[in-house]
Amino acid sequence: MTSIIFFLLAIILSSRTSGATSRGGLFEASAIEKHEQWMSRFHRVYSDDSEKTSRFEIFKKNLKFVESFNMNTNNTYKLDVNKFSDLTDEEFQARYMGLVPEGMTGDSQKTVSFRYENVSETGESLDWRLKGAVTPVKDQGRCGCCWAFAAVAAVEGVTKIANGELVSLSEQQLVDCSTANNNMGCDGGSALTAYDYIKENQGITSEENYPYQAAQQTCKSTDPAAATISGYEAVPKDDEQALLKAVSQQPVSVGIVGSGANFKHYSSGIFEDEYCGTDSHHAVAIVGYGTSEEGIKYWLLKNSWGESWGENGYMRIKRDVDEPQGMCGLAHRAYYPVA
Ligand SMILES: *[C@@H]1O[C@H](CO)[C@@H](O)[C@H](O)[C@H]1NC(C)=O
Ligand SMILES: *[C@@H]1O[C@H](CO)[C@@H](O)[C@H](O)[C@H]1NC(C)=O
């Protein structure tokens, strides 16, 4: 009975979501069929029928959530089922984030200068990818070390801007070796502690030299350094204008609330979520900004959940919102490394 209802719902939805995506074919199948297709698309294998049944129930809930969200044409973005769709929101938050709370990192204690305070020309839009300062989207996998990916993206950017060369750098080195001050590998950490480590270690090696394993291991040799930094600075808190000045000069790592169901299933468009709050558990890099065709200002975020999430691994998220801390708190914990 339920599957018949889903099948009918799917037909209704497929006729409404015209011009959706190349994945539109998914909407013609029942939830069970969709789950099967989804399993093969994301190479998911369950250990037995009972696990499959319980995962299907979660998938079905997520599918329903996504489909009903997409029926509201007022939304400025779309959701889609993705590799996280058989996880509960709690499981998702526990596995794929990894920014420790502000009090654990010394975020607020350090007073550092803000070298970009007098930047006046930020332009209408900027995309650091087009300037060759952003490596391809990476995937943290099931390891709560977003903090390492956010830090590496910012260091890759500033290194390219300072030296002219873009080199993919090693998150694994940070996961294994940056263990001071509450950096705990796959159990969480913060980008600014990673910056301190890179400075003190006199560099970070390349991804190629120290590849990602999605698990914490013992710290290996980190030679040769592929990039060095002299330290980091903080963007003044809760100030999107200051953040704009900083991002106009280099990619910036930020904390963000990434645990909500909408964020989890974001697929395309300009993201906003008035309920996401400011209690950030996730870290990403801001690598640009602009204004959409519809006139909505956005930030361009590079995430570390692979290319199948969002807009090929990226999110455009609403910029210049009423709340000073920015959408989902993105202007509250913003730091950038100094070459
Ligand atoms: C879309 O927005 C309009 C205008 O604000 C509102 O009247 C309408 O109820 C909204 N539609 C949905 C489906 O929320
Ligand atoms: C910004 O300009 C003010 C006024 O000229 C100056 O005092 C300050 O040092 C400048 N800040 C930076 C970071 O250059």
Automatic annotation (TrEMBL):
<keyword id="KW-0378">Hydrolase</keyword>
<dbReference type="InterPro" id="IPR013201">
    <property type="entry name" value="Prot_inhib_I29"/>
</dbReference>
<protein>
    <submittedName>
        <fullName>Peptidase C1A papain C-terminal</fullName>
    </submittedName>
</protein>
<keyword id="KW-0645">Protease</keyword>
<feature type="domain" description="Peptidase C1A papain C-terminal">
    <location>
        <begin position="122"/>
        <end position="338"/>
    </location>
</feature>
<dbReference type="InterPro" id="IPR013128">
    <property type="entry name" value="Peptidase_C1A"/>
</dbReference>
<dbReference type="InterPro" id="IPR039417">
    <property type="entry name" value="Peptidase_C1A_papain-like"/>
</dbReference>
<dbReference type="InterPro" id="IPR025660">
    <property type="entry name" value="Pept_his_AS"/>
</dbReference>
<feature type="signal peptide">
    <location>
        <begin position="1"/>
        <end position="19"/>
    </location>
</feature>
<feature type="domain" description="Cathepsin propeptide inhibitor">
    <location>
        <begin position="35"/>
        <end position="92"/>
    </location>
</feature>
<keyword id="KW-1015">Disulfide bond</keyword>
<keyword id="KW-0788">Thiol protease</keyword>
<keyword id="KW-0732">Signal</keyword>
<dbReference type="InterPro" id="IPR000668">
    <property type="entry name" value="Peptidase_C1A_C"/>
</dbReference>
<dbReference type="GO" id="GO:0008234">
    <property type="term" value="F:cysteine-type peptidase activity"/>
</dbReference>
<dbReference type="GO" id="GO:0006508">
    <property type="term" value="P:proteolysis"/>
</dbReference>
<dbReference type="InterPro" id="IPR025661">
    <property type="entry name" value="Pept_asp_AS"/>
</dbReference>
<dbReference type="InterPro" id="IPR000169">
    <property type="entry name" value="Pept_cys_AS"/>
</dbReference>
<dbReference type="Pfam" id="PF08246">
    <property type="entry name" value="Inhibitor_I29"/>
</dbReference>
<dbReference type="Pfam" id="PF00112">
    <property type="entry name" value="Peptidase_C1"/>
</dbReference>
